[in-house]
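P.,

For your records, the input lines for the assembly:
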Amino acid sequence: MQKNIVAAPQLAEEGKQKIEWVKRNMPILQQIETDFLEQQYFRGLRVLVCIHLEAKTAYLVQVFASGGAEVAVTGSNPHSTKDDVAAALAAEGLHVYARYGATPEEMRQYMNLALDLKPHILIDDGGDIVELLHTDRKDLLAEVLGACEETTTGVLRAKARAKAGQLEFPVVLINDARCKYLFDNYHGTGQSVWDGVMRTTNLVISGKTVVIIGYGWCGKGCAERAQGLGANVIICEVDPVKAADALMHGLRVMPMSEAAQQGDIFLTVTGNKHVIRKEHFSQMKNGAIICNAGHFKIELDLEALRSMAVEQKEMRHNISGFLMTDGRWLNLLGDGDLVNITCADGHPAEIMDTSFALQALSGKFVALNHEDLSPDVHRVPDDIDEEVARLKLKGSGVCIDELLPEQIEYLEGWEE
Ligand code: NAI
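Structure tokens returned:
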């Protein structure tokens, strides 16, 4: 097996420093690491981690290694890989295959190289590794004990496979745990999206009309933060309940065909394809800013945007300008990849602390219980979800109340 492919091994020291910083701010994972070191739950097991390869992910990788696992790592998006962090992990002797700006062919090659480890447990983000194992790498299926899927898009793909009876191993749905979407999707995306937009454009948000397409957990967080920054927020939705919820939060709701003419900044976060397309690009104002925070850039019909442009140029780092035939310039951030990760540093460390604590404990759950898990999708067990919340409170020095026996009796009965 090829040991590793990283772009800049000389940056290992810088990467190490970045990992040290996030580690200081991930107290839940620190507590889990201590337990893993003692108990060695993963001794003899091989783990493949395919998540945006930046500092927080690197710490998760180290936690699995502390638990005795042999780990292979690759990135889940070519523009989210931090070469210094990849170099730091490679310097520790892990199997690392990732570089910033990898082509789609290279991404596939790196995933296949990581799969050459013959992993028992998969920590996936977006479902690409799970998909490869069901197509090109079926030969490895016999070794797989189970997977843990990080995000909404990967969860949808796993559920679709399970529904069709075509899932070959258990997949634990990290995204559907309360300690995931209530913190990561909502607060994490909410904060880091605007971090990415602001530092990339160096423009003000206040007073701008921000159009958010998709008012799920991520969209809701992004909308609230945009309101807090003084933006005038419009929501586009297809789910009437979500649309009504947005209305009750004081947001304007309308179809994209109307919003397209009004927005200064457009953000897609639906997990769906082509939610901004030709008919919308043709209506947007001169100078409009377009970005995506959904897992795949397919949310934007970039082929249409490129075919409509008579000129394309880099306006600023991570901003591509497209000149329309009528003289309007449209600005695309981060080439349409997740704006909070490609144009900023992703979710804050304290947020990934809860998500990755779920990953670590669910990985342990698969290691210890795989014989009882059917080849289907599985919820994160409630005791793991609650354990992560308890560790978060403990790490923050916060105590909470407990139910009295008489209260438990009251809640569980009907007599009183
Ligand atoms: P969600 O399922 O809670 O919300 C998605 C919303 O989009 C739903 O309310 C749905 O009705 C709406 N929608 C779907 N198609 C639409 C269309 N054509 N027009 C308007 N609205 C439409 O999903 P969640 O958790 O908010 O995730 C959204 C995406 O963001 C997924 O791809 C997920 O993987 C990704 N994600 C990205 C993160 C990041 O760091 N950027 C973090 C977590 C998730």
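Two observations worth noting. The pocket of NAI is lined by residues 151-153, 181, 184-185, 189, 213-219, 236-239, 242, 269-272, 275, 293-295, 338, 340, 347 (CB under 6 Å). Residues 107 and 393 are 38 Å apart (CA to CA).

Regards
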